[in-house]
Automatic annotation (TrEMBL):
This is Uncharacterized protein. GO terms for cellular component: extracellular space. Residues 24-55 are annotated as: Disordered. It comes from Littorina saxatilis. Residues 1-22 form the signal peptide. Keywords: Coiled coil, Signal.
Amino acid sequence: MAGVLLLSCLLLAVAGVTSVQSATNPVRRDAQQLREEPLREKRTAPSQTSKSDDGLVTLLAQQAAQLSSLKDKLHALEISQLTAKSELQSELQSTKSECQTTKGELQASQAKLESKVEKLSLSASAVKKEPGSSFIRWGRKSCPNTTTLVYSGVAGGKEHNQKGSGTNRLCLTRTPQFDNTAKPPYYGYLYGAEYQEISGHLDHDVPCSVCLVPQSTTIMVPATLTCPPGWTPHYTGHLVSQYKDYYATEYVCLDGSPEDDSSGVRNDNGLLFYYVVTVCGSLPCPPYINDKVVTCVVCSK
């Protein structure tokens, strides 16, 4: 115990001596500080360099992170552009396909319409080509080139001195057909026809032909060889009828170049074909001339 107290007293005495020396010798203290400051600077310099390096590393890390982020954004943009391009190409392909389909449908519709138009045109053409009217060419076995032959026949009608039966002249078929109808107690007669007082054809049977024309109207114009303007002529000839002292029949136009029928020549009379001549008086002369054989023409429009 006494030893411990002695040691403590010695330490306090040393500390006191040291304090007195420091207080009484400022020069030595300042010199010592000068020697210690470079050492402190050397010890603190590495710490400042380390801090500067750490800041640079941090900056580089930040820039690298930004660059990586930009790369990611660029990649995402490229992917977006590729996706948009792919979608656009797909849409264009789809639109192209739809256009092709629509084009095909339009072509099909056009073909149908053209077919319908063609059918309508053919129908219209057929309607236009259908004969609109007919006429009888008296005295000939054939029809004019401007018409179509329906049938070739022989002229017939009432007997010249009978007041009954019909007054019209008929172009009879060469292939008659009959049924089983019984003959009644009262009836009319049907005769054949002969030329009378027509040079080179006396008592010859008279042929005829029924002709079709595309025009809707056909007329016989007496006392002329020319059709009205806009009308088509088919044949010309002379006006014929029954003899003036016989029972009347209609006027018809006998072809200007009559033929004889192959059935032969016999003086059976029957329906007779006489030329018609003009009689001045109630008939205006001029322009008509007395006792002239009357001409005629058959026209259509």
